[in-house]
Each structure stands twice: as structure tokens, then as C-alpha cells.
Amino acid sequence: FAGYISQVLKNYTDHACDGDYVSLRCPHRTTISIQSSFYGRIVPSHQMCPSRYPHSYATLIKEDVACSVGTSLQKMLDECQDRRSCQFLVNSRLFGSDPCPGTGKYLIVWYKCRPNEYKSKVACEDDKLRLSCKKTMVIAIYSATFGRTQGGSLECPYQNLGMPMIECQSATALQLMIKRCHGKRSCSIYASTYEFGDPCYPGIRKHLNVIYTC
């Protein structure tokens, strides 16, 4: 169980140079959840993915170290999101037009492994959130946020009409929920600033959103 949980909570990073294969893989009963992606070059080739061109040619062309494409994240979502594994060859044609011809590029992907069966619970500010599993099972916290998201929450209507629509979230919500609930059959916690601190302007109504599996 502990090994499975550490794999699920871990943030994975993978990278591949032009002409190499990138391969993402998640453990049993989980699927890939792409967090972020970059394709291009922002560090010189002696630091990452050396140039494949002959040295004489490489010295003639000035390497572009401010090169990236905007389609990288969407392409990774198309190729890998919600699958247990994915593999493909990295090259500029995959991402549309080449942002810097003559410069060797690379792909970096950040992803997590999300449980196939998971539950989501929301508690409005100052309400109690209670999680529980069946007798032989225990709670595994996947994510937790406390604060205010841009779109708000349907369960907790936004009533402060004079307040700006901003996003503000506690940096410690996940650690606190893991400490309070991880590996237990049931647990409860108040969605309060006493527990999580106040990441927002005073007066902004917040909510706690927890994704977990049993």
C-alpha cells in the first residue's frame, strides 16, 4: 500500500531529445494526468540534448535558447491523458511548425498518476469534511485544495459580490490532509482558516476540495 501511494502522489518528470522516444507509464489501477509540458530549447546544448549536427555545421548556426511552442501541452494531452502508458517519437513535426530550424530541441513533461476510481468531496468554509472507506480499506489522498478557484464551486456559491474574482489557495492543504487522513479508515476536518490558514483576502469565502480513493 505504501509503495502504491508514494507512486500515486509523486510528481513525475520525463524528457526526450529530438529523434528519441518519450515514454510515460503509470502503475496498475492509475492513469496519466498531464500537469505541464515544454517543447523547444531554453538551455544550451552542452547542458541538455547535445546537437546532432556535425560540429562544423553547429558552429555556423547560432543556437536559439529562447525557443518554444505553444502547442506542447495540448499535444501531450491528446497523446497521453487518461492512458496507463504512452510512447512516441519526439520531433518538431509533431508540434506543428518548427519554432527554431537548425536548433536541436527537447520535450519535458510533468505528470501524475491518478487513481482510476476516485472520489471528490467539497466542504464550504467552516463546514466539516468527513471521509470514510469500507471496513477493509483505507483512505489514500490524491489532491487537496483550500481557498478559492477562478470558477468557484457549485456547492459553495460565491456571495461576496463586491469582492474581486481571484484565485487563492493554501500551500499546505495537501500535506495537512495527508497527515490527518492518509491510511485511516475514516477522518474528519473543518474547512476553516484555523486549520488551513487564510490564503485569500479577508472576507472571501473559501472551500476545501479533496480527491481521494479507498
TrEMBL record:
Protein origin, superkingdom: Eukaryota
Signal sequence coordinates: none
Residue intervals of the SUEL-type lectin domain: 16-114, 123-214
Entries under PANTHER family matching the protein: PROTEIN EVA-1
Lineage summary: Eukaryota, Metazoa, Chordata, Craniata, Vertebrata
Tagged with keyword Magnesium: no
Name recorded for this polypeptide: EVA1C protein
InterPro entries for this protein: Lectin_gal-bd_dom, Lectin_gal-bd_sf
Gene Ontology terms, MF aspect: carbohydrate binding
Keywords from the UniProt entry: Lectin, Repeat
